[in-house]
Write a structure and sequence with these properties.
Elements: E1 2-7, H1 10-21, E2 30-35, E3 45-46, H2 54-64, E4 68-71, H3 74-78, H4 81-87, E5 92-93, H5 97-104, H6 106-116, E6 123-126, H7 132-138, E7 150-153, E8 163-166, H8 169-183, E9 186-189, E10 196-204, E11 208-210, E12 215-216, E13 219-221, E14 225-228, E15 233-236, H9 245-263, E16 269-279, E17 282-289, H10 296-301, H11 308-316, E18 332-339, H12 356-361, E19 365-368, E20 371-374, E21 377-380, E22 384-392, H13 395-406, H14 422-425
Parallel strand pairs: 1-2, 1-4, 2-3, 4-5
Antiparallel strand pairs: 6-9, 7-8, 7-9, 10-11, 10-16, 12-15, 13-14, 15-18, 16-17, 18-22, 19-22, 20-21
Helix pairs in contact: 2-4, 5-6, 6-9
The structure holds adenosine monophosphate and glycine.
Length: 431
C-alpha cells in the first residue's frame, strides 16, 4: 500500500514504525510523510508539505497516488483536512471537521455524550461570570459529601493548558473568568476520582473496535507533580483494569458515539481517543481526542502483531466489521520521553543528540519527537525530543529496558521522568 502519514512527532514516527514492522515481507509498503522528521525519514520519504494546508496535502496525495492518509495531530483535523481529502476520494484516517469537534469543543463533546448516554462527568456551561459561583457550589463535594477539587475547562483546543483542577476556589473562579473573556463561555464539571486510562478506538463511520488500554503521564515531575506537558511517558497493557475494559468502552462509549454521530449526519471515521477515569462507579469519560495519543499510542502500537495498514485502511473505508481484529504480543511496552532542558516552560533547542544507535543496539526503539539534522549532526528541536520505546516480558522488564536504553543517549541538559510505569510495575495501582 502507498501510505502518507501527516505530522512531525513521536506519534507519527511510531505509526510509520508499526506500519513497516507489520507489513507483509513480500509486499512492502511505500511510505511517505509530510512534513516528517529525521527519524521518520529512515522509514518513509518525507515531503516538505504543511500538514495544516488542505490544498497542498490534497495535491501531494494526488501526486503520490496514495491509497491511505493517516492524520497524526488534531489541529489539521479540526481545520478540515480530512474533509478535503475525502472529497478528493482519498481514504483517510481522521474525522471530518464537524466530527473533530469531539476534541475541538468540550461543550460539543458533552452534548454528544449526553445524547448518546455515555458515562461522563456532569457539567455546566457558564456564559457569564455571575453564574460561575453556583456552578462551583454544585460540584464542590462528592456523593459522600466530602470536598473535592473543582474542574474548570476552556472549551476549545488549548494544547493541554485549558484545564484547571484545583482546590483553590479563587483560582477556579479566575480561570473561569479568563475562559469566558476569551471564548464567551466555560465548562465547569464534576470531579472524577480514580486512575486514568486511554483507550484508542477505531471508528469506520458505523462500527467501532478498541485497542488495548494504555496509561500516560502528563505531569513533568516524578510523582505526578509539576506542570502539565504533552506527555512524559506511557505503558500498555494495564494489568490493574478489569479484563473486559476495552469491550465495555466499545459497548458503552465508542459504539454509542459512532451511532450518535452517524444519526447527526456526521459519521466519525478515524481514531477516537477515549480518556477515562476509572471511578468507584465505573469508567467515566474525562475527554475525547480525535487522533492517537502521544506518547500513549507508541506503547500500544509497539505490541501490535497484525498488519496496521490493513486495519487503518478498513477504518478509512468503512469495512472494519469485515476486517480481522488486531492482535498483540502478550508482553508489555513502556515509553520514556527524553525532554529538552527547560521543557515545558522554555525548551532549549539545538543540543546535540548522541548514543541513539547504541541504545537501539540494546533492543529499544527510538522514535523522534522533536529533532532536526544539521551537518550530519542530530539536534534537539522541540520540547519532547525522543521517545525510548521498550518491550519486556512484563512491565517491570519493559521499564527497565526503556531506562537502560535511555541511559545510553546523551543530550546536554536533557531530562526524563524516572518513575514512568513504576507504580503499576510494583502492583500499586488498585481500583
Ligand atoms: P483534558 O484536557 O480534558 O484531558 O484534561 C486534562 C487533565 O485534567 C486530565 O487528564 C485529567 O487529569 C484532568 N481532568 C480533566 N477533567 C477532569 C475531571 N472531571 N475530574 C478530574 N480530573 C479531570
Ligand atoms: N497523551 C495525551 C494526548 O495525546 O493528548
Amino acid at each position: 500500500m502507498k501510505i502518507l502519514v501527516l505530522g512531525t512527532g513521536g506519534r507519527e514516527h511510531g505509526i510509520l514504525e508499526a506500519l513497516r514492522r507489520t507489513q507483509h515481507p513480500d509486499h512492502p509498503h511505500e511510505l511517505f510523510a509530510a512534513p516528517g522528521n529525521p527519524g521518520m525519514a529512515r522509514l518513509a520519504q518525507c515531503r516538505a508539505v504543511d500538514a495544516g494546508n488542505p490544498t497542498a496535502v490534497v495535491a501531494l496525495a494526488g501526486e503520490l497516488g496514495v491509497d491511505l492518509v493517516v492524520v497524526g495531530p488534531e489541529a489539521p483535523l479540526v481545520a478540515g483536512i480530512a474533509d478535503a481529502l475525502r472529497e478528493a476520494g482519498v481514504p483517510t484516517v481522521g474525522p471530518d471537521a464537524e466530527a473533530a469537534r469531539l476534541e475541538g469543543s468540550k461543550s460539543f463533546a458533552k452534548e454528544v455524550m449526553t445524547a448518546a448516554g455515555v458515562p461522563t462527568a456532569e457539567a455546566r456551561v457558564c456564559t457569564d461570570e455571575d453564574s460561575v459561583p453556583a456552578a462551583l457550589d454544585a460540584f464542590a463535594t462528592n456523593a459522600a459529601g466530602e470536598a473535592v477539587p473543582w474542574v474548570v475547562k476552556a472549551d476549545g483546543l488549548a494544547g493541554g493548558k485549558g484545564v484547571v483542577v484545583t482546590t483553590d476556589r479563587e483560582e477556579a473562579q479566575r480561570h473561569a473568568a479568563d475562559c469566558i473573556a476569551k471564548e464567551g463561555h466555560v465548562v465547569v464539571e464534576e470531579y472524577l476520582d480514580g486512575p486514568e486510562a486511554s483507550v484508542f478506538c477505531l471508528l469506520d463511520g458505523t462500527s467501532a473496535i478498541a485497542l488495548p488500554a494504555a496509561q500516560d503521564f502528563k505531569r513533568a515531575g516524578d510523582g505526578d507533580l509539576g506542570p502539565n506537558t504533552g506527555g512524559m511517558g506511557a505503558y500498555s497493557p494495564l494489568a490493574w483494569v478489569p479484563a473486559d475494559l476495552e469491550a465495555e468502552v466499545v459497548r458503552t462509549i465508542a459504539q454509542p458515539v459512532a451511532d450518535e454521530m452517524a444519526r447527526r449526519g456526521n459519521p466519525f471515521v478515524g481514531v477516537l481517543y477515549v480518556g477515562l477515569a476509572l471511578t468507584a462507579a465505573g469508567p467515566r469519560v474525562v475527554e475525547f481526542n480525535v487522533r492517537f495519543g502521544d506518547p500513549d499510542s507508541q506503547a500500544v502500537l509497539a505490541r501490535l502483531t497484525s498488519p496496521l495498514a490493513e486495519l487503518l485502511h478498513a477504518t478509512a473505508t468503512g469495512t472494519l466489521s469485515d476486517a480481522a481484529g488486531p492482535t498483540f504480543t502478550d508482553d508489555a511496552a513502556c515509553v520514556v520521553v527524553l525532554a529538552a532542558d527547560g521543557y515545558p516552560a522554555a525548551p532549549v533547542k539545538g543540543g546535540q543528540l548522541t548514543g541513539i544507535a547504541e541504545a537501539e543496539a540494546r533492543g529499544v526503539t527510538v522514535l523522534h519527537a522533536g529533532t532536526r539534522t544539521e551537518d550530519d549532526r542530530l539536534l534537539a528541536d522541540g520540547g519532547r525530543v525522543l521517545d525510548v520505546v521498550a518491550r519486556g516480558a512484563d512491565l517491570a522488564h519493559a521499564r527497565e529496558n526503556a531506562y537502560a536504553g535511555l541511559s545510553l543517549i546523551d543530550l546536554p541538559g536533557g531530562w526524563a521522568r524516572t518513575d514512568i510505569a513504576a507504580e503499576a510495575a510494583a502492583g500499586r495501582i488498585t481500583l
